[in-house]
Structure formats: C-alpha cells, structure tokens
Amino acid sequence: MKQQDSIPDKIRKARVLKGLSQENVADMLGISTTAYGDIERGKTELSIKRAQDLSKVLDIPVLWGEKELAVSPQIDTLLEENKHLKSENLRLEIELKFWKEKFEQQLYLEAYRILQQKQREPIGF
C-alpha cells in the first residue's frame, strides 16, 4: 500500500472493497450519511470508539499507537482487480445482450419459416 494514503483514504478504500455505500456504513454505525461522508473526507477526527466501530464494520484493524489505520497491504491490488472485474462484467453483459438478440432473431426466422412452410403445404385432392 502506498505510504501517502491518509486514514480517510484507507477507510474509503476498505468500504469500496467491501462493496458498501457510504449510506450502508453510516447505517451500520448509527450515524447520518453526511457524518460518515465527513469521516471519509477527513473533516471529522475519529474518536477511539468510532475507529473501533469502523474496524468492526469494515474488517480493518486499528493501530492507535502509530496513529494509523492499518489496512491490508493487498488493498490496492484488490481494488485494481475489482475494477478489472467490473469492466469484464460489463463486457460480458454486452456480449450476453448481443447473443440474446441474435437468438431471438433466429427464433423469429425459424417461426416464420415454419409458418411459410405450413402455408405452402399441398392440399391433397
């Protein structure tokens, strides 16, 4: 992890990594979304109690001796992987939509072909 990451940055990264919104975390902490947003923006200094609560909610250890919130050193790698997976998911959703449309076209063509064939069936005299 980069050494220049501030505590609010680490909190934000941990929240994003868990797939939570600011509103989700605020609800879990029993505070307003604005108050939680102020924590992530560094406008509110964390109390020991609030840091402990955040630690539980976000699964991150708190080290007060060094005045630092320790977050997994793999968080940057995981965030990058998460970004990659989101783009891959979007690509797959687009591909799925393409194949669904192609399947529907083939289905309609086949139904039309069968209908045309039935209309052309010779009438037995």
TrEMBL record:
Residues annotated as domain HTH cro/C1-type: 11-65
InterPro entries: Cro/C1-type_HTH, Lambda_DNA-bd_dom_sf
SMART domains named among the record's database cross-references: HTH_XRE (SM00530)
Any single Pfam family the record assigns to this protein: HTH_3
Keywords, comma-separated and alphabetical: Coiled coil, DNA-binding
Recorded coiled-coil stretches: 75-102
Superkingdom of origin organism: Bacteria
UniProt keyword annotation of RNA-binding present: no
Listed PANTHER family: DNA-BIDING PHAGE PROTEIN, TRACRIPTIONAL REGULATORY PROTEIN-RELATED-RELATED
Name recorded for this polypeptide: Helix-turn-helix domain-containing protein
Protein's organism: Flectobacillus rivi
